[in-house]
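Quick one - first record:
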Amino acid sequence: MAKITEIAPDLFRITTFVAPFNIQFSQFLVRDEEPLLFHTGPRALFPEVKAAVASLIDPQTLRWIGFSHFESDECATVPEWQQLASHSEVVCSVVGKMVSVDDCLALRPAKAMADGEVLETGRYRFRFLATPHVPHCWEAGLLFEETERTLLCSDLFHQDGDVEPMTESSVIDRCRKTLVGYQQGPLANYVPYCSVTDTTLHRLAVLQPKRLATMHGSVYVGDGSKALHDLAAVWREVLGPLPLCCIRSDHRAIGDHDYNTHVNPS
């Protein structure tokens, strides 16, 4: 059964822990004049998520369905939600609408959001932020709620485990541990590190969010700007360009199997 936590007035975290993968999947429901669901969850979780949403609003009144990028846990059940809520629209990036959403996913044309454009749901104002390749995918974007200063940040601050819903303690060590662990297996490099990564994270930090609402892990409540700068440092360390000491004499990068020895000896 999904767990529901109110992380800000009428902004709810709906979370299911999937033990075999040691990971939480969270969706965020905004109960407002025009209700918004950010993340739909994968299809296997739809019955639980639907029941949780129904305990908070009439699902037929859902107006907006948002997500960061084209991936199962972000948007797999958009068609099911749009069948339930006949007036609902997907809200996504311009790139998302053009290259994927309208053709592959949504039952109705999506509302494309330009960078910096604002979506008003009633008492809340959500500023859309185009964040290509952060956390991943060309069409990626995030929503920043300006009233309570909550950043709906998708896979940023990913923490494995069945952790608490909210915390005022730093989650950076958890994020680093999760990312380093992923680098050891088939999910390596699930966050690309590229020329826009640092710039994007620092741009988000300027917003000075008070809450960082991640899909996987605890919502962090506190100095969101510092946390984003800290995350940028972790990503640079774990995912950034390899230092010369990690380049082999034949000019190839040291493989993942050597990561702990050469980059993370502890």
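second record:
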Amino acid sequence: MTSLKGKTLFISGASRGIGLAIALRAARDGANIAIAAKTAEPHPKLTGTIYTAADEVRAAGGKALPVICDIRDEAQVVAAIERTVAEFGGIDICVNNASAISLTTSQATDMKRFDLMMGINTRGTFMVSKYCIPHLKKAENPHILMLSPPLDMKTKWFEHSTAYTMAKYGMSMCVLGLAGELKSAGIAVNALWPRTTIATAAVGNLLGGDAMMRASRTPEIMGDAAYAIVTRPSREFTGHFCIDDKVLYANGVRDFERYRVDASVPLISDFFVPDDDVPPPGVTVQPLPSVGSAQASR
């Protein structure tokens, strides 16, 4: 692995949760982090803003640029990337983390919510990547990382939340396409997805409150796994759909208990993890229980 010291990461949705965990892990190396998110003022149900995240990044040893950015808005995306390049001199890594979720059937999904998910998850991911690519081409070890699942085309992933799955799989289709398109340029494009639910606001608010949070892993496992991916040589590792604990196991990690919120509560599988994806030795995960209609930013 190489260090991220002095490298610049543009991370969408980095004000809290998994995006913030990725930022903080990079900050420990002394990386530059552009925190591109919508939350500039405290939210009654969601912790963190771009400014509190910036403070945490600086405290962890990195440099931070908080940028208000709705990734559905092309002008805001272009401006955020231009500010990042002006501040830090370029972009080495693009992390597409921002996402919206609505676990609703077709009849329960209003078109405004459909457009939100497609606009953030699929279109926003494509657009952020598109405008980062010219700068990534100038980087020494350029990476694009999507927080999106393996393309496991099974009815069970679609039947209860078709719109969300379409939008989330759209991010994964960007991995397939861009990995092929950018291979000759040496830009790695990969996806990362958690084996278990992760203790974020989305899980707490949508999937069962405190009980589900206790059955989850902390966002730090995703931060560590993302770090392991984006520090690999970009020309040697691209087009992969990675599961967090398998990435870490391949990098020598054997203690996964440290990522558990509550070791006394069985871990619960996240959406979209293929049935035939075997966890590392010693890791046991229970199936995700059925959940009702819910919606939020993930």
